[in-house]
Structures are given as structure tokens and as C-alpha cells.
Amino acid sequence: MAWRGPGAAGSGRSLVSLSLRCRCFHAAVALLKRKTGADHQWLERHLKDPFVKATKQQNYRCRSAFKLLEIDDKLHILRPGLSVLDCGAAPGAWSQVAVERVNALGTDPTVPTGFVLGIDLLRISPLDGAVFLSETDITDPSTLRTIHSLLPAEKVDVILSDMAPNATGIKELDHQKLISLCLGLLNLSQSLLKPKGTLLCKFWDGQDSRLLQGRLKEQFQDVRTVKPQASRKDSAESYYLARLYKGK
Questions:
Q1: Is 227 an annotated catalytic residue?
Q2: 58 occurs within a structural domain
Q3: CATH label of the domain that carries residue 102
């Protein structure tokens, strides 16, 4: 909210907003002082993170929105009129980006209107322009039938996956579990993805990354590794972008 001075209309709301921001800032500083070691470092980094600040300013649900925004700005995987399946959608930030980019709300009448369907094991708060399957397991065979019943066409143009398993703290085990999720999603692509469609999936680097990459290359004409700037430098997180699906 812009500062308008003590005599301007709405100055009372500005003063209240400023007071609330000050209290939130001081509370965060006080919390930071109580933390030590790894907790202290994480919170300090979080407070300084420019993507965290931008998330609040632009009303995205979490900072991961900027990963998809950066990938799409460079590689143009989302266009008006496309249908999108967002896997691991909670809390809904990637779906927010997809709704904007495919014109799912039809806000621009000069271009086609797209469709966004999000799914997650967790609850996802409603979002205008998107359909959500909350508390739903994409690996359950019955889920595939539900997805088909909701799609405007039998298959989608783009599958997005920011899915990740609950971390155990054992790096190699967590890596293997995420690769298994990605391989399962690749199998589902046979039933869900249109020919020449696109799959974007998160993975954690490790010994099975090449296995996943090889499987993707068998089914897509173009496969590349993407590491957006919004992914923290010390994170093992990267994305495989697979385009031009060979499926029938």
C-alpha cells in the first residue's frame, strides 16, 4: 500500500497497515534472536529471500511460483488455450501461474481459453480458474478415471509436477522415492498426455537421475535439465523438461 501522508484520504488504513507490518517485522526479528545454529541460518535466509518478498507483493501462494514463471518465460511451455494437469499442486502457486498463462479465466477474449486441473494428497484452497482434486492420490487407479471425467478433452497438453515425497532425511532414499514418483507419472502420461505434449517434473540429483532422463528420452523428442534461479543454490532440486511427446 502506498504511503499517502497523514492528511490524505484513507490515511487511517495506511497507518494501521504500517503498524501491522512493523509488528510483524519486530516479531520476526525477535524470533530470529531466539534461534540458534541451523534454525537461525534458515530463518535469516528466509527473511532476506527476494522471492519470498516477491511472493507477498504479487500475491502468489508460495515462492515456488517463480520457478515456473522463470521456466515458462525462457522456454514457453504454457500458452493460451492449453490444458494443464498440475501434480503435487498444493498450496496452488503453480496452478496460479498456469491459470494466468493459459487464460483459464478467459480474461483475454482475444485468445483461446485454457484449462487447469490440480491434484495433491494435501488440501488445496479453491482458486478461480482452476479445478482441484484435494486429498487425492494420483497413483490410485480410480484417480485416473476421475481426472478423465473432469478434463474438457480426453488428454492434456502439459503435465506439471512439483511433487516430492515426505523427506526422511536420508538423502539417497529421498532421491529414490522422488524418482519413483516421476517414473510413475511418466507411465500415467500414456493415458493423460497428448501427442507432442510437454512434461515438467522436479527431481533431486542422485544416482537414479540418469535412469529417469533415459526413460524420458525414450518417450519425448526433446529432454533438458532446468535449474531456475528461484531454486536455492544449495538445493539438489532440478527439473526435467520433456517436450514433443511421442505417444499416440
A1: no
A2: no
A3: 3.40.50.150
